[in-house]
Specification:
- This protein has 391 residues and is of the alpha+beta class.
- The protein folds into three domains: 148 residues, no CATH class; 141 residues, Beta Barrel (L,D-transpeptidase catalytic domain-like), CATH 2.40.440.10; 75 residues, Single Sheet (S-adenosyl-L-methionine-dependent methyltransferases), CATH 2.20.130.
- Helix 1 runs antiparallel to helix 6, helix 4 runs antiparallel to helix 5 and helix 5 packs antiparallel against helix 6.
- The longest helix is centred in the middle third of the chain and has 19 residues.
- It is elongated.
């Protein structure tokens, strides 16, 4: 194999650095403050000298933080080889990746860049020759690459938890939070001690016009607190939904109070001829790679699995989350003692409004029922807006 030209190496490394810069990366320190990622502070030569390169974490650390999509991990490992200046190894890895996942367009794009770099013909990063009509597709792949790289550089610490999961009752075995700002879905599950920990961390697609759905047909993904209502197998679905689907209860009681309309918001897969879609590509659903969707479906439970969709996750330490739990439980104990039980689930959302969804068991006519109440903060005080009972 011919050696790469100095200019090709510089272009490819600089392209990767610029992708990271363009992603607006910030690594959240555990004290709640933010700091710029080391990835965007170092020069390219310094990045090459750093064992962790531009991405900040090695593969073992990232796997421990839920990155278990095999194709994505291998893609990032290839980017890491590029960042370390090991371009021949990166090319070999990219060829294996493209062969193993022929429908993974982003892997094919990286392989093409590396082949052009090897031949000394690389002009810039994502240097694919496409007709003018296909430039939007290429732009989508670049946005996907940025989102995936940003998620790695900004991975939550292994002990951090979303502020949304204030308290999860014993029937809640798994909980999901979707970060639309980062195009990621995080799945949490209980360990042997009953404590919630990160199980999986997946790349996702959202609505073509972003998040904060307000009306039917607006091509946006809703923000708020939802629950998976059922699981739908591939045999019952059109090809566009991929390997399966899990509908959400949008619009929920709070959405209806605000006049939001529409429906059919699902977690679902992708058509078989693609591995993933760009970050903004659905009609409002949250879309995952088929392998990720099937893995998710094998673990979560309809009716009891909450799905919080937020534009930004506030990651907290266990101690910080315990403090928030104590504060909100104290408020709830004063305002609604009947809802304050050890079995209560408290889910917090902060968008245009501060919202607290409280789910707790009860009885009616000697039969068990489930209450689901919606509280919102108004003039600095929590107020009950809707008290519901699940059938």
């Amino acid at each position: 194999m011919n050696s790469l030209s100095r200019r090709s190496r510089q272009l490819l490394l600089l392209g990767l650095a610029l992708m990271l810069l363009g992603a607006g990366l910030a690594v959240r320190a555990q004290n709640g403050h933010t700091r710029r990622a080391s990835a965007v502070r170092v020069s390219v030569p310094a990045a090459i000298a750093d064992r962790h390169g531009l991405l900040g974490l090695d593969t073992a650390q990232l796997r421990a933080r839920g990155f278990n999509d095999a194709a994505e991990v291998e893609l990032i490992e290839t980017y890491q080889l590029v960042a370390d200046g090991r371009l021949h190894e990166a090319l070999a890895r990219s060829e294996r990746l493209a062969s193993r996942y022929p429908n993974f367009a982003l892997a094919q794009l990286l392989r093409g860049d590396l082949l052009r770099a090897e031949a000394g013909r690389l002009r810039h990063f994502a240097d694919a020759r496409v007709p003018a009509a296909d430039t939007a597709e290429l732009d989508g792949l670049v946005r996907e690459a940025r989102a995936r790289l940003a998620a790695y550089a900004d991975a939550p610490g292994p002990d951090q938890l979303p502020s949304n999961f204030v308290a999860l009752g014993p029937r809640v075995a798994h909980a999901i939070v979707v970060d639309t700002g980062a195009s990621r879905l995080y799945l949490f599950g209980r360990d042997a001690r009953g404590q919630m920990h990160l199980v999986a961390n997946y790349y996702v697609t959202q609505g073509k016009l972003g998040a904060d759905k307000q009306r039917a047909g607006d091509l946006r993904t809703p923000l708020g607190v939802y629950f998976i209502t059922r699981a739908v197998g591939q045999r019952w679905l059109a090809a566009v939904y991929g390997a399966g689907a899990m509908p959400l209860n949008y619009p929920n009681a709070w959405d209806r109070l605000l006049g939001r309309t529409g429906g059919g918001i699902w977690l679902h897969g992708v058509p078989s001829d693609v591995y993933a879609r760009p970050p903004l590509a659905s009609n409002g659903c949250v879309v995952l790679a088929n392998t990720d969707l099937l893995s998710l479906m094998s673990m979560v439970e309809p009716d009891t699995t909450p799905v919080v969709i937020t534009a930004h996750i506030d990651w907290l330490s266990p101690a910080q989350l315990a403090q928030r739990r104590a504060e909100l439980r104290a408020t709830l104990a004063r305002a609604a003692p009947h809802a304050h039980t050890p079995d209560s689930t408290l889910l917090y959302f902060h968008g245009k409004h501060e919202l607290l969804v409280v789910q707790y068991p009860g009885q009616r006519d000697d039969k068990p029922i489930t209450h689901r109440d919606y509280w919102a903060k108004e003039n600095g005080r929590w107020r009950l807006f809707h008290a519901g009972v699940l059938s």
